[in-house]
Design a protein that fits this description.
InterPro entries: DegT/StrS_aminotransferase (IPR000653), PyrdxlP-dep_Trfase (IPR015424), PyrdxlP-dep_Trfase_major (IPR015421). One of its GO terms (molecular function) is transaminase activity. It holds the Pfam family DegT_DnrJ_EryC1. This is DegT/DnrJ/EryC1/StrS family aminotransferase. Belongs to the DegT/DnrJ/EryC1 family. The chain is α/β, with parallel strands linked by helices. It folds into 2 domains: 236 residues, Type I PLP-dependent aspartate aminotransferase-like (Major domain) (Aspartate Aminotransferase, domain 2, 3-Layer(aba) Sandwich); 119 residues, Alpha-Beta Complex (Aspartate Aminotransferase, domain 1). It is 40% helix and 17% strand. It is built from 12 helices and 17 strands. It has a 7-stranded mixed sheet with strand order 2-10-9-6-5-3-4, sandwiched between helices. It has a 3-stranded antiparallel sheet with strand order 8-7-14, with no helix packed on it. A 3-stranded antiparallel sheet has the order 13-15-17. α3 packs across α4. The chain is globular. The two termini are 24 Å apart. The chain binds pyridoxal-5'-phosphate (PLP).
Length: 359
Amino acid sequence: MINITKPFLPDLQEYISYLEGIWDREWLTNNGPLVNDLELRLKEYLDVKHLLYLGNGTIAIQIAIKALGLRDEIITTPFSYAATTNSIVWEGCTPIFADIDPGTLNVDPAKIEERITPKTTGILLTHVYGNPCDVEAVDAIAKKHGLKVIYDGAHAFGVKYKGSSIFNYGDVVTTSFHATKLFHTIEGGAVTTNDANLLRTMSLLRNFGHIGNDQFELCGVNGKNSEFHAAMGLVNLKQIDKIMASRKMQSEYYNKIMSHIRVTRPQVLPGAEWNYSYYPVIFESEELLLKSVKLLNEHWIYPRRYFYPSLSTLPYVDKQEVPISEDISRRVLCLPMYHTLRPEDMDYIVRILARAQNN
Ligand SMILES: *Cc1c(COP(=O)(O)O)cnc(C)c1O
């Protein structure tokens, strides 16, 4: 069986050596030494001023929305995972969808301006599949209209734009370290910012709003993560360059053997150093996609319709016109991609895709 992804598991003995430290200290959670150490190393790796390690990537978005004081309308992408839109709704705001560019699959900045109203307070976009949004255009629009920008960087670990970390664009960048992501801590996430005041607010929000033992400054939530999760992160971070190098090789191998398959690939933003975190392909029609998925499944191969459906069709959001997102969502498929996927596995997958399109 070949699944869409397989979580990376590090050397068990190395993880156990961290567990022994936890047993010695008897400190399991609440901003422990491993959490602090992981935050330091991630700041270094992602080249950001401030980073808070959190329970998951969804609470990261919610904390960012809350810390920036966003309310009413937030302009966002219809082409992302449900966590992006859900966080907006969960925070009592209204998602306003701006359609995507059919080439990059990220929000088309021109469509953002069309959606701005007096009620707009912020913009929340995803760097889809790790491909950076047109951050310069988005930031210019935000500045012009006095809007805050959050980027959902759940796919963007290690991505650079014009030589600097993609985590340095926007007011807050959120990310996820879920087991299925390129870099993971089993469950986990983070917010990054270069603004010290925002850092302070988000750090209070992460821990119920506590200042000292008996006082609360604001209405926070539990966004913390544990020493056990941080330990997984510390071990996995040592392997991340190797994991990224294997993704790049696999991605290039897929490119090479896919030339006769009638699919298109998203265009990476010029100036970006991509992390090859996913391998999305866009079919000519949904019919051909479904036929391909069926044949792959019959051979125990499980790709994923990611992102499907377009978030504009969720039953709890107002209907909005985003035809490109709705069209692409129906035709896009992520092929299996993980550190131990072998060239012969990819050959097999592509042979089946060829058979699906030829009969
Ligand atoms: C995975 C993911 C999230 C949510 O992260 P969790 O850690 O699972 O809460 C948010 N946005 C995108 C784009 C994701 O892929």
